[in-house]
Each structure stands twice: as C-alpha cells, then as structure tokens.
Amino acid sequence: MVRIETVLADVAAQPLAEVVPQADLVWAASMVHHLPDQQAGIDGLASALKPGGVLAVAEGGLELQTLPWDLGVGAPGLERRLLAAREQWFGEMRAGMEGSVRMPYGWTTALSRAGLREIGSFSALVEHPAPTTETVRRFVVRHVARLVEALEERISDDDREAARRLLDSEGAGYLGDRDDLYVLGTRTVHTGRR
Ligand SMILES: C[S@@+](CC[C@H](N)C(=O)[O-])C[C@H]1O[C@@H](n2cnc3c(N)ncnc32)[C@H](O)[C@@H]1O
Fold this sequence. Notes:
It is built from 5 helices and 4 strands. The protein is an alpha+beta fold. The structure holds S-adenosylmethionine.
C-alpha cells in the first residue's frame, strides 16, 4: 500500500532534507525558476536524496505553440510576439525577486555543482496536431486567453485588439471556431544521481 502525505515547505528557506525523509526520487517541475537563488535551491533539493537517489528538475524545453502564423485577424505572427513578451516578463520577474541571484549556466551544470553524478537530460514531445479536436480547441482558447491576460500591458494596441477579436466567442474571428489549432512543444527533464 502507498501512503501519501503532503507537507508545505519553502525550499528557498530550508533544505528539503529538513522536511521530508530521504528519498529515492525528488521531482521538481517548473518550480526551481521561482526560487531567488536557483543553485541554492537545487542544492537544497539534492539534500533530501538517499545515496543513489535521483533529482529530476523539469525546466525549459521548447515553448508551446498553438496557432497558425497568419490568423487573418491582426498582423501575422501574434503568437511569437506573445512569447517574446512573456520572455521579457520572465527576465523581469527573475531580476525583481528579492535576493535574486543569476545562474549563468544550464541546469545540468547546476546539478553537477550540487555534487550529483550521472548527469543527463531528456525531452518529451507534447504534440496534438491539427485538425483540431474539441479538447485541443478548448485548451488553446484558454491558453491564449491566459497569455493575453498576463501580457496585456506588454503588447501593442493592435495585438490587444486582435486578441480581443480572437477570444470573442460571438465574433467571426473566434479561435474556438477554427480547426487549424494545434499543440506542439517539448518539456525537458534534467537528472542527476547522488
Ligand atoms: C509554475 S508552478 C508549477 C506547478 C507544477 N509543479 C507543474 O509542473 O505544473 C510553480 C510551483 O512552484 C512552487 N513554489 C514556488 N516557490 C516555492 C518555494 N520557495 N518553495 C516551494 N515551492 C515553491 C509553487 O507553489 C508552485 O506550485
């Protein structure tokens, strides 16, 4: 029988070893980039590994893409501009964190500096090709709506207006009425063994 117990911890404030028993696997997905000092965070996560245990850090990969280049609404290339705006937001988010420390090297180097061995990484393809299914259509509409909401202040008036039309379920340009949407991206997982 498997017993699951949840604990709430701030891994920027204390090594994981102080909060959970020694583990065969520590899995950290899309969270280390939220820590002001990412190397210290990885060191802290690695502290909870048993000898031979694996730390898996899922960070990076290729940004999800979902839209045709020319949507016929606004200027072509809207999705690339949204992703560029998100990249800019990300840099400012990291730089603006209290106690932010740059990590001027990749995740596998960070795992190695944490004293781990057998360092490696792999990527998983996330692909739901067009023609669009209803599930993909609903996902893409929500995904684009969230991006636009978060980046509203960072995109041009023209792109904001195009996004409004694309997300207007009553309008002729509504994304949710298209069958050429898709989901394509990769997720990378970096691993190291104690
Ligand atoms: C983008 S979400 C990722 C959620 C999920 N792991 C996934 O892959 O979808 C970032 C997560 O990092 C967690 N997080 C951020 N700072 C943290 C900290 N200092 N200590 C522990 N968890 C933290 C947040 O609570 C949130 O669940």
